Amino acid sequence: MEDQRFLESEWDYCLVLDACRYDVFADVYDEYLDGTLEKRKSVGSSTPEWAYRTFTDEHDIAYFSGNPFINDLGIPLNELKWGASCDYEWTASEHISDIHDVWKTDWDDDLGTVPPEGLADAFHRNQDAVERADRTVLHYMQPHAPYLSRGKGQKLKQIQKGIKRQEEEEANGGSDDDGGLLSSLSDSVRPKIESRLDDSEFAQKAGLWLELDPKDLVTDGTRVTALSMYEENLRIALESVAELVEELDGDVVVTADHGEAFGEEGVWEHHIETYIPALMEVPWLEVE
């Protein structure tokens, strides 16, 4: 399997689908897009790690980011207080020339995330930035949770709230409250996590349960329920991607920063430096 070679590859527009597994993408993509698909190996198993290991120099890119880890705040990843959980001394704005914080401007409170059309809208509003830059990236949050068909999201909403808190703290001279993601989990789930933090798989699943319907969990179990919602999220994203691709003049690639785990080797969701196939194998589609 070839390495992703994100920046070394030829493209004018790269559409990044956050947490997109290769196998699920391979099953459905041709209903929306034509092109040549390869399986490639990512450089990281989470967005902070992928960004840190991908953007190592200064890059002339118009980056439309639905993911709050890649932002124009000027704060290093290791100093973020809302769940990065890494020691990477990497700041997006020091490596990427023009970042558009779509996670802020086009956030949907009801969904608890940035819907795919938010990326397209931001792209259309900022055509001057696209024309100035050497290349353009649109970083979609889907198929990453929250799952849009449920109509509400919890985990990413807590991160977005954490960002607002940290910006306020920076403006007011700082605070001792770390505003971490765990401290913001719902009262019904948090005690279960805190009582069994030594059980990694349980804690991961407890976080995932925030995004799922309890009735479906009882009927089908966590893996079947989550995979079904995940595939639906991917399809929603691909519908929007397919519409945008029709407008783009140049070489277009669709890929992912990392994958998503649904219990493989005891891992759920995605975590830094967790090198299993479900997280490291990503699609690389050169669109016709």
From TrEMBL:
InterPro entries: Alkaline_phosphatase_core_sf. Residues 148-185 are annotated as: Disordered. It comes from the Archaea. Residues 168-179 have a biased composition (Acidic residues). This is Sulfatase N-terminal domain-containing protein. It comes from Halorubrum hochstenium ATCC 700873.
